Predict the structure.
Amino acid sequence: MAEDTRLQALARVARALNGARVTWALGASAMLRLEGIVPDFHDFDLLVTPGDADAARRALLALGAQEAPPLPPSGTYATALFREYRMCGEDFDLLCDFAVRRGGVAYRYPFGPERVTRSVPVGGEPVPLSPVADWFVLYLLMPGRAGQAETVARWLTAHPDPQSLAWLDRWLDGPLPEDVRAQSEALRRAMDPQRR
């Protein structure tokens, strides 16, 4: 499907979520595409705050989105609410309180309004974006996503900015698996050579 058509579907969803006053942001590959980091994306990952999950679901259903049956519990993910929707030929995943299990520990993504770093216009509608640096860490936590983490790391190293450094620092201030911590610290040093 042409990207313009795909983005028109996103614009419709953004209009509905914004109209319902939902605190949300686009994440994962679609966000990376809008940031110009990757050439393509698989689906749309919509992050919402716990207090807005019901309003987000209602807004998507009112648009005519088809909600898939809930998936069985996952050994990898411990997300509080995960729902898949299909609309205009596109897949939209609604995630609330996203979490990844590693070594028996659930590492939770604390999405909230402060994690909306900026918005970009899509079809005349503002689409809020989550921090690129967050997805470096999240991809490292997820199984089989090392390639995506490397892509994000290359981009962050080439485009260092204080905000991305601050997001990495937030992750480093909390609990992380040793391998994820080591790679995050290495990226932090690459982005800010003065702290080597």
User: Anything to note?
Assistant: The beta strands are 24-27, 44-48, 66-67, 81-87, 90-96, 99-102, 105-108, 118-122, 125-129. Residues 132-196 form one domain. The first strand starts at residue 24 and ends at 27. The chain has a mean pLDDT of 94.
